[in-house]
Structures are given as C-alpha cells and as structure tokens.
Amino acid sequence: MKLTVHTFLTLDGVMQGPGGRDEDTSGGFEFGGWLVPHVDDDFGRIVDRWFSEADAILLGRTTYQLFHPYWEKVTDPENGVAAALNSLPKYVVSNTLSEATWNNTTILSGNFLEAVDDLKSGPGRELQVHGSHHLASALHDAGLVDEYRLIVFPVVLGKGKRLFETGAAPSAFTLARSKATASGAVSLVLEPAAFGAGDLAVGDFEVQDGRDQIRE
C-alpha cells in the first residue's frame, strides 16, 4: 500500500484543531475551528476523493480518540468519509491504549515504524494518515511517507502544532496536483524527493554581464 498523509494547514503551517473550538486545546490553543468558515463544495469533493482511495486508515492516539465518538455517530450512507472511517481497517499507534472499541481497529504499540512498514508491504491501494501530528512527524522523519495531500487555508494563527516542526528531516517535494477552492484554500498533492547534500541541496544567484541569473 502507498502511505499517504492528509491534513489541513494554515499559511503558517498549523494543523491543530481545524474542525472545532474544543477539538484540541492542548498547549493553550484557542483558535480551534479555523477551517470551518472555508468549507465549501470544492473542499467536500477533495476530501471525499481522499477517502474513496483508502483501503486502511492509520491514526495517532489523539486523533483516533477525537474521530471515534464523532464519526461513529454518522450513519448517513451518502457520507463517504463516515463510511470509510467506520468500515475500513483502522490502526492506531499508541503505547497507552489497552483496547480500541471502534469497529475494525488494531492497536500498534512498541516499534510502530516497523509495523507500518509491514502494512505498506501488504496488499491494497492506500494506507491513509489523517491529522495525527506526532505520528505524521515520525513517519516523515523515517522516510515512510509516499505522498502528502494538504489543503492550505488563507489563515495565519501564529501558534499551534505544525506539520513540520523545527528539526524535521529536510526534504524536497514534487508537485503532482494542485487545485484552488472557491473559498480560497489550495489543495496540494506532493511527492517527497531527496533534498540532496552539500552543494546539491541549495543554490546561488549571481549577476553576470548585468543580468541576474542562477549560478551554474
């Protein structure tokens, strides 16, 4: 399976508490629900497409415990997100959960990176991560992410959990697809690429014969 990471971001990279005021107030975060005013039909179609490509869901403990009580109550058969979350195999990374009562859930404890690598080797289309700040960071640093699907919203918060925190492993990305929504959000599909090393990682500009150009 391809491992894909899906998340909603502000312009300054914050992913915390997009869907509700009390969704995640850890660290004194007080801007929960910042995504909601920008939800439109374009947004809905993008997210529905995400979930239509999933064969399994991988979540961190906090996101799992946020998702479970909400989405388990959504029984509308026309809701593709709820249908996927409630029926597909789910894996939650945690060393503290003793049981997981949401349908079709397996707890991954201990060396979860090895377990995730094993899952990727199995049959299926996509193993999808949604939210899950700490998990997404660990998967990025381990080089296990095959594709990022991000929706960036025209909001700056100045504080909160970020997808790529200080100290994240350097990476370059190739843009596979992009789309702007009517509300001004931008959907990006990014494929990780080697950042390089030494002079291959960066470049320089120079002025030659009066022209501003990239140094060869």
Describe the structure.
Strand 9 (205-208) and strand 10 form a beta hairpin. Helix content is 23%, strand content 27%. The radius of gyration is 19 Å and the shape is globular. Helix 1 packs parallel to helix 3. The chain is an alpha/beta fold and 216 residues long. It has helices at residues 41-52, 61-71, 80-87, 112-120, 133-141, and strands spanning 2-10, 56-60, 90-93, 105-108, 126-130, 147-153, 172-180, 186-193, 205-208, 211-214. The protein contains five helices and ten strands. The strands form two sheets. Strands 4-3-2-5-1-6-8-7 form an eight-stranded mixed β-sheet, sandwiched between helices. Strands 9-10 form a two-stranded antiparallel ribbon.
Structural topology:
Layout: E1 2-10, H1 41-52, E2 56-60, H2 61-71, H3 80-87, E3 90-93, E4 105-108, H4 112-120, E5 126-130, H5 133-141, E6 147-153, E7 172-180, E8 186-193, E9 205-208, E10 211-214
Parallel strand pairs: 1-5, 1-6, 2-3, 2-5, 3-4
Antiparallel strand pairs: 6-8, 7-8, 9-10
Q: Briefly, what is this?
A:
By secondary structure, this protein is α/β, with parallel strands linked by helices. 23% of the residues lie in helices and 27% in strands.
Proportion of strand residues: 25-35%
By secondary-structure content and strand pairing, the structural class works out as alpha/beta
Count of DSSP H/I helices: 5
Strand order of the largest sheet: 4-3-2-5-1-6-8-7
**Number of DSSP strand runs:** 10
**Which of globular, elongated, flat, extended, rod-shaped describes the shape?**
globular
- Largest sheet features: 8 strands, mixed
